[in-house]
Amino acid sequence: MKTLYLITGPAGVGKSTISKKIAESLPKSCLIEGDDVYHLVVGGYVSPWKEGNHLSFFWKNCISLIENCLAEGYDVVFNYILSKNDVLKLKNNFSGSDVVIKFVALIVDEKTIVERDKLRPQDCQMGERSIVLLKEILAENFNKSNILDSSKLSVEETYQEILKSDRFVI
Questions:
Q1: Cα separation, 159 vs 14, whole angstroms
Q2: How far is 112 from 133, CA to CA, in rounded Å?
Q3: How many C-beta neighbours within 10 Å does residue 144 have?
Q4: Which of 11, 106, 112, 141 is found 20 to 30 A from 18 (Cα to Cα)?
Q5: pLDDT by residue (tens digit) across 15-37?
Q6: Strands, DSSP E only, in 20-137?
Q7: Alpha helices, DSSP H only, in 74-147?
Q8: Rounded mean pLDDT of the chain?
Q9: pLDDT for 123-158, tens place per residue?
Q10: Rg (CA), the chain
């Protein structure tokens, strides 16, 4: 039985850090950073929240990557800013297969997200966009059992909670 970890949250919440820790702790795993897949497009690049984006192409690539990794016997950790519809799309695509799906929406309070954003390399800082994304994630009204507030948790505590708890299984 393989596990597909879906990690979402606003920019600066720690998706990449936590995803990497989860992947490193598994005996056979792949880490798929959604941003890296989205940024495969260079010529004709359009931000994902803007008209004319290439999200359709992005999702085809992500689903193929996840399928290929699972088929080779790898657990998969995928992180990206996901909507309820995105999670449903992924759940529907991989349900019925020999895969456990864990979905986690990481959140923190506004003060913490601002502090964490400032710790990122300057060219990766999102500023006010981090707060906007936090509000958008909260507005999705994800199931409470899938939300993990890591404001007061260490990196170790956060990724261990995700690994050990069945509350995130969808």
A1: 10
A2: 14
A3: 8
A4: 141
A5: 999 999 999 999 999 999 999 99
A6: 29-33, 75-79, 99-107
A7: 84-94, 110-119, 128-139
A8: 94
A9: 888 888 889 889 999 999 999 999 999 999 999 999
A10: 15
